[in-house]
Amino acid sequence: MDDATCDEGPWPWLLHRLGYTVDSTWKTGRSWINGDAYIVLESGPAHTRGRHDRLRSGLNHVALWAGTRDELDALVTDAAQHGWTLMFADRHPHAGGPDTYAAYLEDPAGFEVELVAEHP
Question: What's the mean per-residue pLDDT of the chain?
Answer without folding.
Answer: 87
